Protein: Beta-xylanase
Organism: Micromonospora craterilacus
Amino acid sequence: MSRDSADTGRSRRLRAALALSAVGLLAAVGTVVLPGTASAASTLGASAAERGGRYFGTAVAASRLNDSAYTTILNREFNQVTAENEMKIDATQPQQGQFTFGNADRIVQHARSRGMQVRGHTLAWHSQQPGWMQNMSGTALRNAMLNHVTQVATHFRGQIAWWDVVNEAFQDGSSGARRDSNLQRTGNDWIEAAFRAARQADPNAQLCYNDYNIDNWNDAKTQAVYRMVQDFKNRGVPIDCVGLQSHFTGGSNYPSNYRTTLSSFAALGVDVHITELDIRNAPTDAYRNVVNDCLAVARCKGITVWGIRDSDSWRSSESPLLFNGSGNKKPAYDAVLAALNNGNPGGNPTTPPPGGGGCTATITPGQVWGDRYNTSVTVSGASTWSVVVTITPPQKISGTWSGNPTWDSSGNVMTMRSNGSGNTFGFTTMMNGNSSARPQITSCTAG
Ligand code: XIL
């Protein structure tokens, strides 16, 4: 046997052995990120999952689930789904008291049977109301809205990772005011009432406020939503996240301060989601910037594009998506995948929060078992520090080392303070059935 063929035979056996052990590992613990593995995932969802357990999702229309060209791309590329219209009020309660969930259930079933997470969209909104609701006002409307939130969130309980509880409640322009609507006219507290009803109906869903034109940090609308979320957090109104629709078309382009907007909302103690991304003519640079900005903010959990092919888009004439009408990848797709793959494994470069900062905390994934995994965090830029780490329930931190931990009331947010034992601390997290989520650094503060 020549030297060449001996080498080839050995490397073939090595590859076969590695492949076998990788299969065994995956079977045991689900998808894992192996520390130190240079990765170039080949799909959007897989790559996002490797960036700190993020998702890359799409809006889905039930009517397209019979189109195999569509479902082939959906099933290959995406690990999160939002129903484009099927969970809206006119779809789920077309007549008062009569609920129809068939199309929404089909989407949820398609997604969940393939391990994709589902975003519920949306429980309370001035638009796409059924006729009976459009004609209501006052206490009757308030009660009908709360009943709708309760019934729909109860129907989907346990299946929805995030609900857009309230959609588009603020005015555009310089006023910073609430949008006038029949819901707004029931009283300014309609939004918090909706969030409380949603929390009660599905305590495990993360509850989001979702809007468009809140991308530019300098806009009055962005500031107004920011102040509402700050007020909700201060008063204990149950809110977990803010969704930025990010329809970048025509008058509203990708703003250069987008990352500031994401990190400023995150610093309030909520997650941020990019929920309905589409960009007129799909420029590669704007798509790349959105991905890089999300990866730079630990609490940016993922990106959803508003449709798969340009021909599926609500703005199809603007060709704003990642696949063309024939289902082929566009240059914007390549830019997005490359940006995801180039992102920091673990996805955790810390953006210092306003007024804090002064150090950087970097996550290194540690050993993974079937039911738990270890994480270590190294701090640079300060010798005494406190680092805030957030985990995704039902995961729970079960043990820590080399620091002094304290916890918030939810048990999901740990503040680890230096205890003189160096600049690396660690912890063990129980997966409790969620093997894909990974801890996020929320802040690093020196001193
Ligand atoms: C759009 C859908 O894409 C269209 O099919 C429908 O005709 C109108 O609504 N903001 C939202 C989404 O929150 O629900 C909207 O979806 C787009 C703007």
